[in-house]
From TrEMBL:
GO molecular function: DNA binding; DNA-binding transcription factor activity
Record carries keyword Transcription regulation: yes
Any Gene Ontology CC annotation: protein-DNA complex
UniProt keyword list: Activator, DNA-binding, Transcription, Transcription regulation
Protein's organism: Roseicyclus mahoneyensis
Protein name (record): LysR family transcriptional regulator
Location of the HTH lysR-type domain: 8-65
InterPro entries assigned to the protein according to its UniProt record, in alphabetical order: LysR_HTH_N (IPR000847), LysR_subst-bd (IPR005119), WH-like_DNA-bd_sf (IPR036388), WH_DNA-bd_sf (IPR036390)
Gene3D superfamilies: Periplasmic binding protein-like II, Winged helix-like DNA-binding domain superfamily/Winged helix DNA-binding domain
Family statement drawn from the similarity comment of this UniProt entry: Belongs to the LysR transcriptional regulatory family.
PANTHER family in UniProt: HYDROGEN PEROXIDE-INDUCIBLE GENES ACTIVATOR, TRANSCRIPTIONAL DUAL REGULATOR HCAR-RELATED
Length: 312
């Protein structure tokens, strides 16, 4: 059963530490900006609250008892932690700090977040990002459940209790196997896709809806027989001549340009076919200023990629 004791204050802890440092009631009181009788009363009140003798009283320098030294050691830890909280509050109000749990789509996070994290470490050293990948639909559910503080995902995301910060638009290009007849074109149009077999991720991914809509518009055939489980899987299926697909610009830069030679990449619709990407959080979280600052930092990182169109 918990033992009930009178409240112990941070002020009393500071007075005890001052007494330990100065070894004199008068000097400790002066360093704390109070009278000696007031400090003596507070130390006595602390002893009574704990039921311990903390100070050896007598002639000469004041010394802490064994119990006093142990209490002082823990008081110092508590005061340090308290100052850490105060410092964090200043950081959170003026910048980014603490731990933020960020959920991200598997089609976005691996290709953007390494750059974002590197930049944030340089500009916001007190910030720690805990990043977890999932499909967009799982991300949204987990956001509502409180698993994530905010999510990086394809927009739009509906929900009256959610807030959104747009980051950028990311063009989608057509990937085709080497030697495909369309590889001779520098830019593909709607007519080029008519009758072509298009591969996509499963409907659990937001990209599926975007690609399904463009297939309906262009007369392309969205394959129902094969659904990729990742962008890498889609690329490999294309390389095996199973059809064409659309790949996001960040993936193309990270995994294909200057590296992979198994597929050809061609722009589509003058790079105007794109997905909108943003951050989403619960409006009731009360952390909108910090998340808006994070969005601004992510836009700054995105500006290094000329193929992205910055939004917001």
């Amino acid at each position: 059963m918990p033992i009930s004791v009178p409240p112990i204050t941070l002020r009393q802890m500071r007075y005890l530490l001052a007494l330990e440092e100065t070894q004199h009631f008068r000097e400790a009181a002066e360093s704390c900006g109070i009278s000696q009788p007031s400090l003596s009363v507070q130390i006595k009140t602390l002893e009574e609250a704990l039921g311990l003798t903390l100070v050896e009283r007598g002639h000469g320098p004041v010394r802490l008892t064994l119990a006093g030294r142990e209490v002082a050691r823990r008081a110092r830890e508590i005061l340090d932690a308290t100052q850490g909280i105060l410092d964090l509050s200043v950081t959170l109000k003026s910048g980014l700090g603490g731990t933020i749990r960020l959920g991200t789509s598997v089609t976005l996070g691996p290709y953007l977040m390494p750059h974002v994290v590197g930049d944030l470490r340089a500009t916001n050293p007190d910030l720690r990002l805990y990043i977890r990948e999932a499909t967009p639909r799982d991300l949204l559910r987990e956001l509502h459940d409180g698993v994530h503080d905010l999510i990086l995902t394809q927009l739009p995301v509906s929900g009256a209790t959610l807030s959104t910060a747009r980051l950028f638009r990311e063009p989608l290009s057509v990937a085709m196997p080497n030697g495909h007849p369309l590889a001779d074109r520098e830019m593909l149009t709607n007519e080029d896709l008519s009758g072509q077999t298009i591969l996509a991720l499963s409907p659990a991914y937001a990209l599926y809806d975007l690609i399904s809509a463009v297939c309906a518009e262009t007369g392309a055939d969205l394959s129902r027989d094969y659904e990729g489980t990742s962008l890498d899987a889609l690329r490999q299926m294309v390389a095996m001549n199973m059809g064409l697909t659309f790949l996001p610009a960040l993936y193309v830069e990270s995994e294909i340009e200057g590296r992979a030679r198994d597929v050809q990449i061609r722009p589509f619709r003058g790079r105007r076919f794109a997905r909108s990407v943003g951050l989403v959080w619960r409006t009731a979280s009360g952390a909108a200023p910090a998340y808006e600052r994070l969005a601004g930092a992510m836009r700054d990182t995105a500006r290094r990629f000329p193929q992205l169109v910055i939004e917001g």
